[in-house]
Input
Amino acid sequence: MTPAASNPAVDEAPKPKKFVIICYSGELEKTWATMILASTAGAMEMETTVFVTFWGLQTFVKDRKRITGENWMQKMMSFMQRPGASHRKLSKMNFMGMGPWMMFKLAKKYNVSKPKELLEMAKEMGVHFVPCQMTMDMFGIKPDDLIEGMGEPIGAATALQLMTEADASLFI
Amino acid sequence: MANLEIKQKVDASGLSCPLPILRATQAMKTIAAGELIEVTATDPGSVKDFAAWSAATGNTLVEQDSSNGKFRFVLRHK
Output
C-alpha cells in the first residue's frame, strides 16, 4: 500500500480520463451518436480523440464540397454519397431524404442539436478529430477538402495506441 | 442558502441531452474559479447528468432542487 496522504502527487489534480471514438460510419444516426458523445466527453474534460476513417471521413468533408477525389472512381464515390456533416443519410428509412428531413424536424421540435452543431461544440471543447491517412489516400480526399481544425492524419497503429491508452473507446 | 451570488444564469429549459451540459460547460468557461452559475433545465436526465459531470470535472454541484418539472442546479467553478 502506498501512503497516499504523504504522496504530494496524489494531491494534484487527477489525471484526465481518456476517451477514443473510432468514427467509421457515415450514416446520420451514427454520426449523431458520435457527435453527442464527443461533445459531452469534451464537456466532461475527458481527453477525447475521434479517429475518422472510411465512411466517417465523408462527414468531415466541407459541406460545400460536392465532389472529391482525383480519378473518376473517387469522384463517382463522392458523387454517390454526398460528403459533409449536413448531408448524412439514414441507414434505414432514408426514403430519398424524407427520413432525415423528418429527423431534423423532430430534432428542432424537441431542441436536439444537429450533428454539425454538436461537432462545432465538440471542437470548441477541445475534442481532437484526426483523419485516417489511408482513407484520405483511397478516396483522394485532400487536407483542404476537410473542415477546419482537423488534426494531422494518422494510421491504424496510432489509433490502436490511443485506444489501448484510453479509459474507454468506441467503434461507431 | 438563498444569498449565493450567481455570476451567470443559464436557461436550458426545453433543451434535450446533451445541451444542458454543453451550455453549462460553455458558461463555466466565462467565469473564474470559485464563482457560481445557475442552470435551469427541464430534461429529467439532467439530474443524473449534472452529478456525473460534476464528478468528472471537479466542479461542485452546490445546490439542486426541482419544482413543476423544472430542475435547478447551482454549480461552482473549481
